[in-house]
Design a protein that fits this description.
There is one protein chain. With 463 residues, the chain is mainly beta. The protein has five helices and 25 strands. Strands 2, 12, 13, 15, 17, 18, 19 and 21 form an eight-stranded mixed beta sheet that branches. Strand 23 and strand 24 form a beta hairpin. It is globular, with a radius of gyration of 27 Å. 40% of the residues are buried.
Length: 463
């Protein structure tokens, strides 16, 4: 019989060997649920335990659990996975339970939680619960607080979820390799009172990045800065699902950053309030309004807004090279270069060759080009008015009137009411409004001439 002491023998997290598992039977481990779909899954309503308002993981899912003697038990499996970055490209990554990032773990403040972590990788690993308060021996730093989990072994972590908030999990073992390969996931601890800061829609996502050469599928793990795929939950636009909300909803979006650089996350059409960090909820008196919030490496931000205005509103990193896909960084700048003569010569050898970039790079979004196998276009995505010309860390918040409470289906493109869509001017150019010119200059006057200031002594007004 394996006792509780056997489980927690050693440096806080104890290995369960294959022999042990066979002795206690398969029922000793909770089921290791797996997911092979890259689509956003419906929120997991808690089947037992204390109630909470579940989150929606963009292009992800929530890990089921079992209750055993009042403890929530989860089973994570670290393993090689194949992740579709976007239609037309798949990557060979490392992750958990069939996905990268791994499934979101949702618990309630005060829950006692037991997580079994099985290692199916070719090297040792560990699990660090980023931002959690827990016993030191459960912190998951290989060599410091525990031995590494060897291949084929299962370790057990157990602690109480002591404070509500948004956290992450990832290895602290060969982490340059393992995190560059996609090993990470989200952890949500909900407040005891589900009415506390309740929202109608609660989305969460991790920002991650990869360096995958065009035509290949495995990330270059030694890359430090020059990544070519900037992703949301290991998905690049147009593979990132929209966030669908009903007009009038109070909406929360939780964003964690496990890339190697900061990301100024920007939302169109609405201002939001920063309400949370990985250190906890921001007190109401300390919150601030934004339309862009910068998220540094290893940080999380929770933002909230009221979805007042219908439409398809862009949501993206404001670093422009983070909203394009592979091939974007090494393409030479050809703007203003006359390629006519060389194009004629090349066409005699390669009849289908096209000169591109001499008038800017928009052609690369509008005109398909031959690409290496398993490679995404640099600028991609089609909208109701043509090529969107984005990639990477880009998606939309689709606000619609009259959606049901749990309806997350894509409503399609927004239909603009009459008089609310920018249009081409069809009149005579001579009738366009012009600014007045300053007499005798030929330059536009920016302000009308004003008399000099006159200050009255002892008075409180000026002319």
């Amino acid at each position: 019989m394996v006792t509780r002491r056997d489980f927690f023998r050693g440096a806080g997290a104890a290995a369960v060997s294959t022999a042990m598992v066979s002795r206690v039977g398969a029922a000793a481990l909770p089921e290791a649920a797996s997911m092979d779909s890259a689509a956003t899954q419906a929120p997991l309503a808690p089947p037992n335990g204390r109630p909470y308002n579940p989150v929606v993981t963009l292009n992800g899912w929530t890990l089921p659990w079992r209750m055993k003697a009042g403890v929530k038990e989860f089973h994570l499996v670290a393993e090689p996975v194949v992740r579709e970055i976007a239609p037309g490209m798949k990557a060979r990554l490392w992750g958990y339970n069939g996905q990268s990032p791994g499934p979101t773990i949702e618990v309630v403040e005060g829950d006692r939680v037991r997580i079994f972590v099985t290692n199916k990788l070719p090297e040792h690993t560990s699990m660090h619960w980023h931002g959690q308060r827990l016993p030191n021996g459960m912190d998951g730093v290989t060599g410091l607080t525990q031995p590494g989990i060897p291949p084929g072994k299962t370790y057990v972590y157990e602690f109480v979820a002591r404070r509500a908030g948004t956290f992450m999990y990832h290895p602290h073992a060969d982490e340059m390799m393992q995190m560059a390969m996609g090993m990470m996931g989200l952890w949500i601890t909900h407040p005891k009172d589900p009415r506390f800061m309740a929202v109608e829609r609660d989305f969460c996502m991790l920002l991650n990045a990869y360096d995958i050469e065009p035509g290949s599928a495995t990330p270059k793990v030694n890359t430090m800065l020059d990544f070519n795929l900037w992703t949301v939950n290991s998905r690049a636009f147009p593979g990132v699902d929209p966030m669908v909300v009903a007009q009038g909803d109070r909406v929360r979006i939780r964003v964690g950053n496990l890339t190697m650089t900061n990301h100024p996350i920007h939302m169109h059409g609405h201002e939001f309030t920063v309400t949370g960090t990985d250190g906890g909820w921001v007190p109401p008196t300390a919150r601030w309004p934004e339309v862009t919030t910068d998220i540094a490496v290893g940080q999380m931000r929770a933002i909230e807004f009221d979805a007042t205005d219908p439409g398809d509103w862009a949501f993206h990193c404001h670093k422009s090279h983070h909203t394009m896909n592979a091939m974007g960084h090494d393409v030479p700048t050809m703007t203003g270069v006359d390629q006519g003569e060389v194009l004629a010569k090349i066409n005699r050898l390669v009849p289908d060759y096209m000169a591109m970039g001499d008038k800017g790079m928009a052609d690369m979004a509008a005109m398909p080009m031959p690409l290496p196998e398993n490679t995404l276009p640099m600028m991609t995505g089609d909208g109701p008015f043509g090529a969107i010309g984005m990639g990477g860390m880009f998606t939309t918040v689709k606000v619609r009137k009259g959606l049901a409470r749990h309806d997350y289906r894509d409503p399609g493109w927004y239909r603009h009411p009459a008089g609310t869509l920018a249009y081409e001017y069809q009149g005579d150019a001579g009738t366009l409004p012009t600014a007045p010119q300053a007499p005798g200059t030929g330059h536009m006057a920016t302000t009308p001439e004003t008399p000099p200031l006159e200050v009255k002594k002892g008075g409180h007004h000026q002319h």
